[in-house]
C-alpha cells in the first residue's frame, strides 16, 4: 500500500467519524438553531482535505460533495477562528478546511414587507434564509481590478459572497441616500440603509 493510499484512507475514515459526530449532534438538538461551536474547544486538532470554492461548492479530496444534506450538516459546525482559518468543530475534534473567498454563496433574494418596511431575505448556498437586519451586515469592497466584492454576514462571523446576478438585481432596486454628507447608492432593509459602493 502506498503512502498516498494510506493518507487517503485515513482522511476517508476521518470524514466518516466527523459525519457521525455531526449526525449525533443534529439528532440531539432540540428547538432548532445551530450547534454552539464557539463554546467547543476540543484537544484533537488536525486538517481534512475539504475546500469551499468561490461559488460556495464543497469539495472533498478534489471531488464535489454531491449530497446537499452532508454539505448542510457540515456547514452547521463551521467556525472561523480569526487569524487562523476555517474549521469544522465538534466537541471532540477541530479540523481545518480551505475556503477560497467565503464559506457561503448568496444565490437569491426576495423582498418581504415586515411591519410596513421592506426586508431583504437572501437565500444562501445551503438553502437557508438570511435576513438583512443588522447594520454593516452587507459590505461591498473592491478587487484590484475594481470588481465589487459584496459579502453578507450569514451567521456569527461567517460570510456569504453575493453572486453576480444577485448583486445586479440589488443594483436594480437601489436608491440614492445621503450618508455623512455623501450621496451613496444602496438598498433598504429593516429600516437600515446598506451602500452598494
Describe this structure in words.
This protein has 197 residues and is of the alpha+beta class. It has two domains: 97 residues, duf1285 like domain (duf1285 like fold), CATH 3.10.540; 92 residues, duf1285 protein (duf1285 protein fold, Roll). 22% of the residues lie in helices and 44% in strands. The longest helix has 26 residues. The radius of gyration is 19 Å and the shape is elongated.
Q: Just name the CATH architecture of the largest domain.
A: Roll
Oligomer class = single chain
CATH class of the largest domain: Alpha Beta
| Number of helical stretches of at least 4 residues | 3
Number of strands: 15
| Termini gap | 55 Å
Mind describing the biggest β-sheet? Answer: 6 strands, mixed
Tell me the count of domains. Answer: 2
Regions with little confidence, pLDDT below 50 for 5+ residues: 1-6
State the CATH topology of the largest domain: duf1285 like fold
Biggest sheet, spatial arrangement of strands:
3-2-1-6-5-4
Helicity level: 10-25%
Mean pLDDT, nearest integer?
A: 88
Class by helix and strand content? alpha+beta
What would you report as the Rg, rounded to the nearest angstrom? 19 Å
Q: What percent of residues are in strands?
A: 35-45%
Order of helices and strands: HEEEHEEEEEEEEEHEEE
- Output the CATH homologous superfamily of the largest domain: duf1285 like domain
Shape: elongated
